Amino acid sequence: MALFSSIRSDLCYNLGIDDISFFIYRKLFSYRMFALVLLRFTLNGHRFARVFLLYLYHIEIGKDVIIGDYLFLPHPMGITIASGTRIGNNCAIYQHVTFAEKGGQHLGPTIGNNVIVGPGSLLIGNVKIGDDVKIIGNSVVSMNINSSRLVSGNPAREFPLLAI
């Protein structure tokens, strides 16, 4: 039941509605939504979903990956998630993001809640990213990041996240 609950929360969040309805089923096979459904089935151990996710969206997921609720994939293409990666609730992951393990340790990054990972970013090793972090596109993160930070650059530097 947790699989369908996660799918429902992802779909409701991405469509901006509160309850499941016929509207969701019409949108279920849209480009973004189908990727989310395949992702949840892959995390639940379905091999067919892993194959479809790889060939349709070029999304590769390692073993023992945990992803929280309310995931947002605006452009679900070319995402690589290493084994042991943990992603919190209410996160957005853009295209061509790589969560990589370092040295074959099978420990990917740990991402907090409310994190936005910009397009083309690379998170290397067992780094810990705090809550409310925004990682600018094409950043290379190989160090731990505190909460409420803006991260940019190669190598990544962190800045305080200013309220607008």
Give a structural overview.
This protein is an alpha/beta fold and 164 residues long. It has a single domain, classed as UDP N-Acetylglucosamine Acyltransferase, domain 1, CATH 2.160.10. It contains four helices and 14 strands. The chain has helices spanning 2-15, 22-27, 31-43, 47-57; strands at 60-61, 66-67, 80-81, 86-87, 92-93, 98-100, 110-111, 116-117, 122-124, 128-129, 134-135, 140-141, 149-152, 157-160. The protein has a five-stranded parallel sheet with strand order 1-3-6-9-12. Strands 5-8-11-13-14 form a five-stranded mixed sheet, with no helix packed on it. A hairpin with a 4-residue loop joins strand 13 and strand 14. Helix 1 (2-15) packs antiparallel against helix 3 and helix 3 packs antiparallel against helix 4. The longest helix has 14 residues, at 2-15. It starts with a helix and ends with a strand.
